[in-house]
Amino acid sequence: MFRRLLPTLSALVLGLAGLGWGLWQLQRIFATEREDARASLHSRREALEQYALVSLRQTLREKLEEARPALELAAADPLAPAQGLYLRERGEQLLPRLALHDPAEDSPARDRYTRLRAGKEVPEEEDEPWTERLALMGTLERALERRDVRSTTDALVAYLQHRVRYVLASTRDVPSFLVVLEALAERATPEHLLMQSLLHHGMEDGQGHRMEGLQRLLLLKRSRFTRADFYFLHERVVELSRRTGTPVIEFEARTAELAATPLPLPGSLPGPVLVRSGWYLEPKDKDHVRGVAVAPAALLDILTQEMRERGLLGPEGHVSLLGTEEVLPLANLPLGVETPLWEEEEKALEQRYRLKTGMVVLCAALALTIAGLSFVAQHRKYRFVELKSDFVATVSHELRTPLASIRLLAETLEWRLAQGAETKDYPARIIHEADGLGFLVENLLSFNRIDKGRWVPHLSVVRLDELVATLRRDLEAWARVPVELTADVGERELLADPQLMRLLLANLARNACAYNTRNPVCLRVESLADGRVRFSDNGVGIPEAEWERIFGEFYRLRGQGREVPGSGLGLALCRRILRLHGGDLRVAASSPEGTTFELTFAERR
Questions:
Q1: How far apart are CA 375 and CA 9, in angstroms?
Q2: Confidence at 232, pLDDT banded by 50, 70, 90
Q3: Locate the Histidine kinase domain: which residues (predicted)?
Q4: 409: how many CB neighbours lie within 10 A of its CB?
Q5: How do strand 521-527 and strand 483-488 relate by DSSP bridges?
Q6: Are 242 and 257 in contact (CB under 8 A)?
Q7: How far apart, in Å, are the Cα atoms of 360 and each of 23, 38, 373?
Q8: 599: which residues sit within 8 A by CB, 6+ positions away?
Q9: Which DSSP symbol is given to 98?
Q10: What pLDDT band is residue 68 in, cutting at 50, 70 and 90?
Q11: Distances (CA, A) of 377 to 243, 286, 370, 391, 470
């Protein structure tokens, strides 16, 4: 078929190519006209846009400069507020602060805190600093039990000096420090300023060594703790701070501000940029980026008001950000200055351009539609010719075979009669071939009448067991192989055309016998409780990919070829018969052990 369609397809392709080239040139002319008109219109606003751009750049830089002291303080002090500030160093976001907890699911810090409180922490022999730390804690504990103020002070100083001298793992240092401060708060009356220093401000030892307060320490070392450990220690620190009158508002606020994930801001920056989500970022160097939160819409409103006051814009003019890019380099911000007059002129320009473009698209669509319809019509023409040829060849073959058999049997019968030989089986064989020929013709005529809508079914109440009995007699008459037909239909009644039902069952049975290699052929008709009827056989089976295709007209199973007699209309006729009754036919199951068809009937009213 492709060779037949090749000239038509070539002509259509050449015609569409020529038409497409012409329409493309016409569209280019329209686009050039629009761009020239736009250039003339935009030249009147370039000066205003440049003024707005310079003003916005200056405003953004001033905001970052104003936020510089707060940014430096927040970077150095974990208790300082960091809302609206951004800092990234070496690819890591420092502000806004991130939770960065250890992803493990255990709680080593909480477990150690529990053991320390219970006095059950066992030092490891190879870990000398931790052993010394536990010994100092024990000394402090005994001094507190004796309520010896001097010994308590000496033990506390020794413990703090050991903390400055040795840096232990945070999961050891922070829980042990918390236990010491809780012991002081519970068993002694420490100075208020001392507890504030140990919990909040921090302190220096006079030699330039600084020891952070517990609140700052927990925030600084938050990445060393699991989430469960961090919030457990946070709760204990808050409780201890409130008990000792230490400020805790900043500590709780900074903890609440911890973000789970970094801000979705660009990793590399070509220079200062404005992010539509509300950030102005400025890279200090390759690994250092600082920024401040801004409200682009509010800044543009302020700029618009300023330009109106200077007489640069009318009462309804405004400045806006154009485009859809999320990250906007400050060097070329896409600012637009709009007034109603310019909008009306651009709208009229766009309307004219869209009208012209629409005409071009309409012409192209019409051309493609005409070409497609022409190709489909030509394809259907050749397809119809092929189907007609296949149908004639199939039917001619199926008609010729029984006719040749009848003629051969008749000539042989005539010769045997003349010779006086035995001929008792020849009339039966002639009848069998004539019956097959008649069944084929009946299939063709019935399919044609149903397909053309000229068959009006004569509905009546018919018992399913009577249809099965009729099928059994028909099988005995024309089946050439032994057939075992079983039925489990009870007293099921159908509202159907008896002639069509008999033709349907006969087609299913003949197909089951034709596509079968077993002896005997086993058929079963079963009525289900929900009204469906199943017809099963023990044939060769149908591949699942073919379950729907076999109901097509003139379709034959691949691999069976012409070896199995038939016109390819049997199953197509069966489905149309059921649909004529308001039901349907489908393959319920199939395997090399056999096939089960499911017949669905319309509900009786």
A1: 7
A2: very high
A3: 394-605
A4: 21
A5: parallel
A6: no
A7: 6, 21, 20
A8: 504, 532, 533, 534, 535, 578, 583, 585
A9: B
A10: very high
A11: 91, 66, 10, 21, 46
CA dist., res. 159 & res. 452, Å (int) = 104
Cβ contact 524:486 at 8 Å: yes
The answer on pLDDT for 559 being more than 50 is no
Query: Which three-class secondary structure state does DSSP give residue 285?
Result: strand
Rounded mean pLDDT, 154-169: 89
Q: Please, what is the Cα angle at 586 between 604 and 470, to 5 degrees?
A: 65
Residue type at 549 in one-letter notation:
R
**Dist. CA 93–CA 86, nearest whole Å:** 8
Quick one: tokens of 252?
């709780």
Helices (H) and strands (E) in the chain, counts: 16, 17
Q: Can you point out the beta strands (E) in 422-464?
A: 460-463
Q: What is the distance between the alpha carbons of residues 395 and 389, in angstroms, rounded to a whole number?
A: 10
Dihedrals φ, ψ of 145, to 5°?
-65, -35
Tokens in use for 487?
């039925």
pLDDT in tens, 451-463: 666 677 788 889 9
Q: Is the pLDDT of residue 51 over 50?
A: yes
Separation in Å, CA 120 to CA 104, 112, 143, 355, 380 = 24, 9, 19, 86, 91
**Phi, psi angles (nearest 5°) of residue 547:** -60, -35
Give the tokens for residue 549.
């295709």
Task: Identify which has the larger pLDDT, 302 or 7.
Answer: 302
Looking up tokens 């606003």 gives 45
Q: How many residues does the chain have?
A: 605
Q: Tell me the backbone φ, ψ of residue 527, rounded to 5 degrees.
A: -100, 125
Q: What does 362-390 look like in DSSP terms, one character per residue?
A: HHHHHHHHHHHHHHHHHHHHHHHHHHHHH
Instruction: Please state, in angstroms and rounded to a whole number, the distance separating the CA atoms of residues 589 and 526.
Output: 14
- Integer Cα distance of 114 and 120 in angstroms: 8
Q: Which residue has the tokens 């104003």?
A: 66
Q: Of residues 288 and 457, which shows the higher confidence score?
A: 288
How far is 217 from 8, CA to CA, in rounded Å? Answer: 83
Q: How many CA atoms lie within 13 A of 364 on its CB side?
A: 16
Q: Residues 315-348: pLDDT tens digits?
A: 888 888 888 888 889 888 888 887 777 777 788 8
What confidence tens digit (pLDDT) does each residue in 572-590 have? Answer: 888 888 888 888 999 999 9
Q: Are 485 and 475 in contact (CB under 8 A)?
A: yes
* DSSP state, residue 520: S
The amino acid that residue 135 corresponds to is: A
Q: What is the C-alpha to C-alpha distance for residues 227 and 354, in angstroms, rounded to an integer?
A: 58
Quick one: tokens of 317?
């003019």
Phi, psi of 211 (to 5 degrees): -115, 120
Q: What is the CA radius of gyration of the chain?
A: 47
* Cross-sheet strand order for the sheet of 533-537: 483-488, 521-527, 533-537, 594-600, 584-591
